[in-house]
Amino acid sequence: MARSRPHSGPTMHDVAAAAGVSQATVSLVLNQASGGRFSEETRVRVQDAVQELGYRTNAHAKTLRDGVSGIIGFLGDAVATTPFAGKIIEGAQERAWEDGLLLLTMNTGGNKALETASLDSMLSYKVAGVVYAGMYHRRLDVPEALSGVPSVVLNSQDRQRRLPSVAPDEELGGYTATRRLLDAGHRRVAMINIETLESELPAAVGRFNGYVRALAEAGVPANPDLVRFGSGNELDGFTHTMELMRGGHPPTAIFCANDRTAWGAYQAASELRISIPDDVSIVGFDNQETLAPHLRPGLTTLELPFIEMGRRAVDLILQGAEPDGTVEYMACPLVERNSVTHPKELP
User: Fold this and answer.
1) Distance in angstroms (rounded) separating the CA atoms of residues 155 and 72
2) What's the pLDDT tens digit per position in 88-98?
């Protein structure tokens, strides 16, 4: 006895019949073909029929026909473990979905063998492009395999300057943070950085350059005694703030180059029994949602534009992502809370 073939769901023929149009018209509508000879009313009828019948396109057939799938790959070194990763993915996924594409996300944990295997798998699916994301801003050695598909480096830069990159504007962020303190009347503005300048870490170098530029613009000489270089952790923020505030002429404000450093500065202020912002104003960088709003007082800080960067990376892929090595920098907005006020004694 022959087995009955399982029902595979509604077909394009069923959609065409329900909408009262040809299968060719259904195909044009579903593929968003430009210049298609159908009215807006026809398009709505087709879409209503698709929704009512629960029709799904044959992704495999589309891949065979067009040579690419309706998928964009997202390959990250710490997608599953970084507090900011969700926002980067949210922005990329949201933008992909607006064009009817899915985001295939893979976390490598920095394992190069896993990265190679993940990328091979993505390319076997004929993805329309790949977002290659670093979970903090640095220069990356990008896999050669990405040269064969539209690709964008996100939140980092291609060390070889081949692929286009989308990254935060670190220098503008450092300038904005320092400018906020200067505008409040501070002239002894310290900085606790997240790395040395010799490290060439774009975040450390850029934020420091922005700090120096803001001081120079305000006619305030940069004072090396007010600059400290840590590792971006809470302990360094605590230690360096203790040193700065115990000095003979302490700063009235501190720009901490990330929120974890600022958290350490808050603990030092508590240890020294000095008030934030009355005795010392503090600005952070990152706007880490699990930290910055919950400090007391809430931390004024710069927000890394992860959602916007994720969207922009997919935008570039949809535009073809020419391998020209350009770096597109995106501004980091200031998030005002309650950690900044004017100094007790204006100079």
Assistant:
1) 17
2) 889 999 988 88
Question: 284 with 292: CB under 8 angstroms?
Answer: yes
In tens, the pLDDT along 84-137 reads 678 888 999 998 888 888 898 888 877 888 888 988 888 888 888 999 988 778
Q: Distance from CA of residue 108 to its chain's centroid?
A: 17
Within 35-146, residue ranges assigned H as helices are 40-53, 59-66, 85-98, 112-124
**Total domain count, the chain:** 3
Q: Exposure of 260 by Cβ count < 10 A (0-12 exposed, 13-18 middle, 19+ buried)?
A: buried
Give the residue with greater pLDDT, 287 vs 15.
287
Q: What is the CATH number of the domain that holds 300?
A: 3.40.50.2300
Q: Are 294 and 211 part of one and the same domain?
A: yes
Q: Do 83 and 132 fall into the same domain?
A: yes
Instruction: Yes or no: say if 191 and 255 are a contact pair by the CB < 8 Å rule.
Output: yes
* Domain residue limits at 37: 12-52
Q: Indicate the helix (H) or strand (E) that contains 104.
A: strand 102-107
Neighbouring residues of 212: CB distance < 8 A, sequence distance ≥ 6: 222
Q: Is the pTM of this model over 0.70?
A: yes
β-sheet bridge partners, residue 284: 301
For residue 21, the one-letter residue type is V
Residues 95 and 242 in one domain: no
What the block records as the tokens of 99 is 């064009």
In the three-class reduction of DSSP (H, G, I as helix; E, B as strand; rest coil), residue 56 is classed as coil
